[in-house]
């Protein structure tokens, strides 16, 4: 890298090796479990009024899955303030995300203290949850080997060597069936007994998703450099070797989200990385390779959360000296992506007495993926700029439809006031927003299996 | 009988063995032991340190407990410890002999105790092997002279975020191996030369986020090996010449968030400096004198100041520069040669200023640029050829400018069409004028729509036009007062109602504003 500094070449790859090896790099290091915990608590001590640490559960070996929360009111969901999460180190040996999220936490705290307007605004308007390591046991296995000797698979899984990104309930098959039969398009039911079929780390994360109404998320991995968006699982698993693009109803939006990260990243958008090429640095999961039971698809199919998977580095466990470059390359992207949670529309759903209605459905005509309101009656629907017809509905109320134009800037607020339905129409189907001309059949509702 | 005896003997043996192995692997109550050498206790119900810890334990970490006192005997049974961490507990007092037996200790942290106001003299007297001592986020008001005298091997000392307002002279006199000293987030009003005495190997000094309002020219004369100096978040209003001139190895200097009104490279003395990173963000800089002695500087952050303009020689000789951030100032224009010879620039941030024009040759030497941010300025147009020399793939931000989508935009428009992938937030690059294109994205506008409705000043007075017809040729002669591109649209309406349109552009570059006749036949 020293040579690249002296002899600038047109090759950007070479140049990037020399990028700011010094910039605030002195505190970037690998963190073993206890060092990570110390680092997180240090951030909490440094910014006590805007942070909170909580554990969502324990790993197989008993390590806490600590989350650091940033908010102007830590520990409290404020209506109309969206919840965001970053998850790192799901594969124990993919460590760049873990270190970036520790550094990102320090960065948010320091910039807030320094009065950085952009960061201050972000923390005031967003509730940010950071889980730097979802697989602390796997990390220890990988870290014991160290960066030099880390094989491709050592420490990927948890202490029982289960790959956590193949461990979530598979909801895609049901989704693809519902697509054909015009069934439910969101919050698909979990299989019976699911708690006993997943690992403790997975269980902790699913419970976490149940307790917080996350809107946007990213899951940080390593081994390639690309922003990967759902679906991960191919619609037609029979075509082996050749996988096909599995678009979600929110495909355009997901592409935009992925592009936001890849372009704000110093080199992801260039496409050529690690000997692979991804146009614009983004890819649909299934068109890369089909993957079942992943966390990304689960977010979209079981919650209101839109998650993408970020592959950040060719080397899954790079030497410490590589971390400053990774940080500088990702810093702006981590902030820009987070800011995306403030686009689209958001608002409240009230009844006639101005009481908020929880779990009301928000449907956007033309996009067959509804979202629901949280317990406070607030909803968030990420959308690209454009004009939309939006319907709010809830059992026992008459649905209400509005038209709204979304611009490129802040989320538009659109509130709904639902009238109680007359007795006879109480049976009305809850998916009134999904009237589909091509399939006028009433939605097929299957009970939870 | 014999059988019974034998059986009980075997049982006894089993029990005995079972008991012993249990002793070896027993983990203290309310603690976790992921390996035999480490004990981690994180339970707020724990109010005293656990007893009978295995002698194998080297690492002992106690966090978020309610342990309030460390007594002289608290740790006497674990003299083998090499790392001891107390984090976010409720310690009120640490006995002077608490660590007396811990002679093997290499790392000690006592952080996050909001009621810990002082440490007794002699607390660390047997820690001659200690290399890392962290005393952050407590409530230490000061430190007694001599507290650190025995720490001859110490390499890292942090006392971040206490309420220290002053430190005794010669406090660090024996810390001849110290590399990192962190005194940030305290209430220090000054850094005295005598306080830094003995720190001949110090590389990183953090005194950021204190109340320091001035520095003397000899403040740092005892720490001449410094490579990083953090002074951000203080109250410095000015820096005297030669303040940092003793720091020949200084690579990183952070002055962010002070009250500086001006900055000059004279603070580094007269010789060229080796400085690589200089952060001046969030000061009150109105002017910036030439930085030409900073010939090694790669990163320069000048954002969030009050710079109105820059002189042409500001960055002369600063040719190693790779990242330059001038965002969030009040710059209205930039001298044509401002970035001249800065061939290594990779990131140039000019967003959030008041730039209304950019010279066509401004970026002539930035062929290696990878990131150019021009967003949130007052730019209506960009000159043709501005980006033509960029050789590497780059990303650009152009949004938040009042783009005028007329014939002057052809260059930018073509470039946006061609390189749209390189522009971030393309959906926010909007036309501000003319009215009929307002709020449209530049990328969505058809090139043919980029027309110049000649302004009153430039438009030929149609009353002064003469119309001549001879045979099948119509000649319109107008007199233009100004030299601007003129587009003439001729519409022929056939008898069947079809319309054909001919557009004629007169580019002043070629016409040189001669009284050229433009002819067009159907």
UniProtKB/TrEMBL annotation, chain A:
UniProt main location, coarse: membrane
CDD domains registered for this protein in UniProt: Peptidase_M14NE-CP-C_like (cd11308)
Cofactor(s) it depends on: Zn(2+)
MF GO annotations: metallocarboxypeptidase activity; zinc ion binding
Entry's EC annotation: 3.4.17.10
Family: Belongs to the peptidase M14 family.
Ranges for domain Peptidase M14: 29-341
Catalytic activity field: Release of C-terminal arginine or lysine residues from polypeptides
Mode of membrane association: Peripheral membrane protein
Biological process according to GO: cell communication; intracellular protein localization; peptide metabolic process; protein processing; signaling
Annotated localization: Cytoplasmic vesicle, Secretory vesicle membrane; Secreted
Any single GO CC term annotated in Swiss-Prot or TrEMBL for this entry: transport vesicle membrane
Protein encoded by which gene: cpn1
Organism taxonomic ancestry: Eukaryota, Metazoa, Chordata, Craniata, Vertebrata
Pfam families: CarboxypepD_reg, Peptidase_M14
Entry-linked SUPFAM superfamilies: Carboxypeptidase regulatory domain-like, Zn-dependent exopeptidases
Class of enzymatic activity (EC top level): hydrolase
Signal peptide positions on this chain: 1-25
UniProt-annotated catalytic positions: 311 (proton donor/acceptor)
Residues covered by region (Disordered): 425-449
Keywords: Carboxypeptidase, Cytoplasmic vesicle, Glycoprotein, Hydrolase, Membrane, Metal-binding, Metalloprotease, Protease, Secreted, Signal, Zinc
InterPro entries registered for this protein in UniProt: CarboxyPept-like_regulatory, CARBOXYPEPT_ZN_1, CARBOXYPEPT_ZN_2, Peptidase_M14, Peptidase_M14_domain
SMART domains hit by this protein: Zn_pept
Protein known as: Carboxypeptidase E
UniProtKB/TrEMBL annotation, chain B:
Keywords: Glycoprotein, Leucine-rich repeat, Repeat, Signal
Gene Ontology annotations for the cellular component aspect, listed alphabetically: extracellular matrix; extracellular space
Signal peptide: 1-21
Superkingdom field: Eukaryota
Keyword Kinase: no
InterPro entries according to UniProt: Cys-rich_flank_reg_C (IPR000483), Dev_Immune_Receptor (IPR050328), Leu-rich_rpt (IPR001611), Leu-rich_rpt_typical-subtyp (IPR003591), LRR_dom_sf (IPR032675)
Residues in LRRCT domain copies: 401-453
One Pfam family in the UniProt entry: LRR_8
Name of the protein: Carboxypeptidase N subunit 2-like
Natural source organism: Salarias fasciatus (Jewelled blenny)
Higher taxonomy: Eukaryota, Metazoa, Chordata, Craniata, Vertebrata
């Amino acid at each position: 890298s020293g040579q690249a500094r002296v002899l600038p070449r047109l090759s950007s790859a070479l140049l990037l090796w020399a990028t700011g090896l010094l910039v605030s790099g002195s505190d970037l290091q690998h963190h073993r479990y206890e060092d990570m915990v110390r680092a997180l608590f240090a951030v909490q001590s440094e910014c006590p009024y805007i942070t909170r640490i909580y554990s969502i559960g324990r790993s197989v070996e008993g390590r806490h899955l600590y989350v650091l929360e940033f908010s102007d009111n830590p520990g409290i969901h404020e209506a109309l303030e969206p919840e965001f999460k970053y998850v790192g180190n799901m594969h124990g040996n993919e460590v760049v995300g873990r270190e970036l999220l520790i550094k990102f936490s320090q960065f948010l705290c320091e910039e807030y203290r320094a009065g950085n307007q952009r960061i201050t605004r972000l923390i005031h308007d967003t509730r940010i949850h950071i889980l730097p390591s979802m697989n602390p046991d796997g990390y220890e296995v990988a870290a014991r080997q160290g960066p030099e000797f880390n094989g491709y698979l050592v420490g990927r899984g948890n202490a029982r060597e289960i790959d956590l990104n193949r461990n979530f309930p598979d909801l895609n098959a049901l989704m693809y069936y519902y697509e054909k039969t015009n069934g439910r398009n969101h919050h698909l039911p979990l299989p019976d007994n699911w708690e006993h079929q997943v690992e403790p780390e997975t269980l902790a994360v699913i419970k976490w998703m149940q307790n917080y109404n996350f809107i946007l998320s990213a899951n940080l991995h390593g081994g390639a450099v690309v922003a990967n968006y759902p679906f991960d699982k191919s619609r037609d698993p029979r075509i082996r070797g050749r996988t096909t693009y599995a678009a979600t109803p929110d495909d355009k939006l997901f592409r935009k989200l992925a592009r936001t990260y890849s372009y704000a990243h110093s080199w992801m958008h260039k496409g050529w990385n690690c000997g692979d090429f991804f146009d614009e640095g983004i890819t649909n999961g299934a068109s890369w390779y089909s993957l079942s039971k992943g966390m990304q698809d689960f977010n979209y199919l079981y919650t209101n959360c839109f998650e993408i998977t970020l592959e950040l580095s060719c080397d899954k466990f790079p030497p410490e000296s590589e971390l400053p470059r990774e940080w500088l390359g990702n810093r702006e992207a981590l902030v820009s992506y987070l800011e995306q949670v403030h686009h689209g529309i958001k608002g409240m759903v009230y009844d006639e007495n101005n009481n908020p209605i929880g779990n009301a459905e928000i449907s956007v005509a033309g996009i067959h993926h509804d979202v629901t309101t949280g317990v406070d009656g607030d909803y968030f629907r990420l959308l690209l700029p454009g004009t939309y017809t939006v319907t709010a509905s809830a059992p026992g109320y008459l649905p209400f439809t509005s038209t709204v134009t979304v611009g490129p800037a802040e989320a538009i607020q659109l509130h709904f006031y639902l009238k109680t339905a007359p007795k006879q129409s109480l049976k009305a189907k809850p998916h009134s927003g999904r009237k589909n001309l091509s399939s006028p059949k009433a939605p097929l509702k299957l009970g939870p299996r | 009988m014999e059988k019974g005896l034998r059986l009980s003997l075997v049982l006894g043996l089993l029990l005995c063995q079972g008991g012993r192995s249990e002793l070896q692997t027993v983990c203290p109550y309310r603690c976790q032991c992921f390996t035999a050498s480490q004990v981690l206790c994180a339970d707020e119900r724990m109010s005293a340190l656990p007893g009978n810890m295995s002698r194998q334990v080297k690492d002992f970490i106690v966090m978020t407990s309610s342990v309030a006192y460390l007594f002289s005997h608290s740790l006497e049974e674990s003299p083998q410890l090499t790392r001891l961490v107390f984090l976010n507990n409720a310690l009120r007092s640490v006995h002077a002999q608490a660590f007396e037996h811990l002679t093997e200790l290499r790392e000690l942290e006592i952080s996050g105790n909001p009621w810990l106001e002082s440490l007794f003299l002699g607390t660390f007297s047997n820690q001659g092997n200690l290399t890392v001592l962290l005393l952050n986020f407590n409530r230490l008001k000061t430190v007694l002279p001599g507290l650190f005298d025995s720490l001859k091997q110490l390499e890292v000392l942090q006392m971040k975020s206490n309420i220290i307002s002053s430190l005794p002279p010669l406090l660090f006199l024996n810390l001849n191996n110290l590399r990192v000293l962190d005194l940030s987030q305290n209430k220090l009003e000054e850094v005295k030369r005598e306080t830094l005495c003995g720190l001949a190997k110090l590389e990183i000094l953090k005194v950021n986020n204190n109340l320091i309002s001035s520095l003397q020219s000899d403040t740092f004369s005892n720490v001449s090996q410094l490579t990083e100096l953090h002074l951000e978040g203080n109250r410095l209003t000015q820096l005297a010449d030669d303040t940092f001139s003793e720091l020949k190895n200084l690579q990183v200097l952070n002055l962010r968030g002070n009250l500086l009104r001006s900055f000059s490279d004279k603070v580094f003395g007269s010789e060229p400096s080796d400085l690589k990173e200089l952060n001046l963000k969030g000061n009150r800089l109105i002017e910036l004198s030439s930085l030409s002695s900073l010939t090694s500087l790669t990163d320069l952050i000048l954002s969030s100041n009050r710079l109105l303009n820059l002189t042409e020689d500001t960055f002369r000789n600063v040719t190693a520069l790779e990242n330059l951030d001038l965002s969030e100032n009040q710059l209205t224009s930039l001298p044509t040669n401002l970035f001249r010879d800065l061939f290594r620039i990779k990131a140039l941030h000019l967003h959030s200023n008041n730039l209304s024009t950019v010279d066509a040759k401004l970026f002539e030497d930035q062929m290696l640029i990878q990131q150019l941010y021009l967003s949130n300025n007052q730019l209506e147009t960009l000159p043709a050829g501005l980006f033509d020399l960029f050789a590497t793939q780059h990303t650009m931000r152009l949004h938040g400018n009042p783009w005028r989508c007329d014939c002057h935009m052809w260059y930018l428009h073509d470039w946006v069409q061609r390189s749209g992938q390189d522009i971030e937030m393309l959906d926010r690059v909007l036309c501000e004028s003319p009215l009929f294109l307002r709020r449209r994205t530049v990328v969505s506008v058809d090139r043919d729509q980029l027309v110049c409705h000649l302004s009153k000043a430039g438009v030929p007075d149609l009353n002064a036009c003469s119309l001549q017809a001879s045979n099948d040729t119509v000649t319109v002669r107008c007199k233009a007062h100004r030299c601007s591109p003129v587009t003439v649209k001729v519409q022929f309406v056939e008898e069947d109602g079809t319309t054909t349109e001919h557009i004629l552009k007169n580019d002043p570059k070629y016409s040189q504003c001669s009284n050229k006749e433009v002819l067009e036949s159907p």
